[in-house]
């Protein structure tokens, strides 16, 4: 499995304008997908702190009864905690009825709250295939693992 990590980068206005003029900024590959499902996994980490990971999964219709999943991206966001903290663990997967597919996991120490996103894009021919109407996107995380761990769970509607 090849998980890609993206850190926040500071772009100055002249850099952005030059990149737009040259055409070097491109849309992510997931933009070509037909559909998107989003689920949030959030919890309070204290009286004035919270953590949230938004997961976007991009998919297309493979047949009239199945979905083909192209890419999944996770976007962390927190308030009231140090962004450099690496004490979170997060897993997402597709639930096809009762079967798990497309498991993407990051363990404690692999990512921090300062990352822009992390995710998985599947190569052609290896994309997870699920049944229409029986698919759910699941997001499960443990935050604040260095002191008092807090669990979060998120589940999408059936699509």
List the helices and strands and how they pair.
Elements (H helix, E strand, L loop, with lengths): L2 E5 L5 H10 L12 E12 L2 E13 L4 E14 L9 E8 L2 E8 L8 E7 L7 E3 L3 E9 L6 E6 L4
Antiparallel strand pairs: 1-7, 2-3, 3-4, 4-7, 4-8, 5-6, 5-9, 9-10
Structural account:
The protein is mainly beta. The chain has one helix spanning 13-22; strands spanning 3-7, 35-46, 49-61, 66-79, 89-96, 99-106, 115-121, 129-131, 135-143, 150-155. The longest helix has 10 residues, at 13-22. It is elongated and about 50 Å long. The chain starts with a strand and ends with a strand. Residues 10-27 have low confidence and may be disordered.
- The number of distinct helices, counting runs of at least 4 residues, comes to 1
The largest β sheet comes out as:
6 strands, antiparallel
Measured between the Cα atoms of the first and last residue, the distance is 25 Å
How many E strands? 10
Determine the strand fraction and express it as a percent band.
over 45%
Mass-distribution shape: elongated
Radius of gyration from CA coordinates: 17 Å
Helix percent band: under 10%
Structural class: mainly beta
**Average pLDDT taken over every residue:** 86
- In terms of per-residue confidence, which ranges show pLDDT below 50 for 5 or more consecutive residues? 10-27
Series of H and E elements? EHEEEEEEEEE
């Amino acid at each position: 499995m090849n998980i890609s990590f993206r850190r926040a980068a500071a772009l100055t206005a002249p850099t952005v304008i030059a990149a737009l003029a040259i055409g070097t900024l491109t849309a992510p590959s997931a933009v070509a997908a037909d559909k998107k499902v989003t689920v949030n996994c959030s919890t309070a980490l204290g009286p004035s702190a919270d953590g949230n990971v938004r997961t976007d999964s991009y998919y297309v219709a493979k047949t009239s009864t199945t979905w083909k999943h192209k890419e999944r991206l996770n976007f962390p966001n927190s308030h009231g905690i140090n962004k450099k903290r690496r004490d979170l663990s997060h897993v997402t997967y597709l639930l096809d009825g009762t079967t798990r597919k497309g498991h993407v996991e990051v363990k404690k120490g692999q990512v921090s709250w300062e990352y822009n996103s992390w995710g998985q894009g599947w190569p052609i021919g290896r994309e997870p295939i699920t049944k229409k109407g029986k698919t759910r996107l699941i997001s499960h995380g443990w935050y604040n693992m260095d002191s008092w761990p807090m669990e979060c769970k998120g589940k999408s509607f059936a699509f």
